[in-house]
Input
Amino acid sequence: MFNLFKKKKEEPEYDVTNLSVNDLDFGFIFDYDLKSWVVKEVYEYDWGDNNFTREYKVDSGDEIAYLDVDDGELSVSKPIKLREIEEDVFEAITEKEKAPGRIHYGGETYYLQEDSAGYFRDCAKETKDWEELITLEYYNEEETLFVSLTQWDDRTLECYAGKVVKSFEVSNIIPGQ
Output
C-alpha cells in the first residue's frame, strides 16, 4: 500500500557506478596492496584558507593503516614508535621548539618538507569540537616515503611512517551497508 508519510531514503552524494577515493566514507570497502580494506573511522583536518583533508582508519583484517586523501594525492601510513627515529625529535620539538631539518628512520634519510598547524576532528563523534595540532612532514629524497610527526600538545607526539600511493592503486571501491 502507498504511504504518504513514509520517509524517503536519502540519495547518496556519490555516483555508485563511478566511485573514487574522494567518495570514501565509513563502512566503504576497497582494494589496495592485494587486500580488501574496510573504512573503520573518518577524520577531517582543517589547515586554514579553506583547505580540508580527510584521513581514514582502515582495516584489512590482519592490519590497520591510515589512508590520507588530499586533493587526489594519497598516502598510506602506519604508526611507528618515536624511538625508532634515530634523532631525539621529542627533545628537539618539545624543549628546543625547533624541528630537525632531517631525520633517519629504517635506514633512510628524510628531509623536512613542511610543517603545518591545523585542526582535527573525528567525524563519527557527535561533537563538532576541533583539536589543535602541528604536523611535520619528512620525505625521502625520491619523495615516495615519508615520516609524519603530529604534536597534539606540549608533550604529546605521534609518529607515522608510510608511502605515497597513486590513485589507481586503490580500486574496487564499494559503499558500506
Q: What stands out?
A: The radius of gyration is 19 Å. Residues 89-94 form the longest helix (6 residues). The longest strand covers residues 108-122. The chain has one helix and eleven strands.
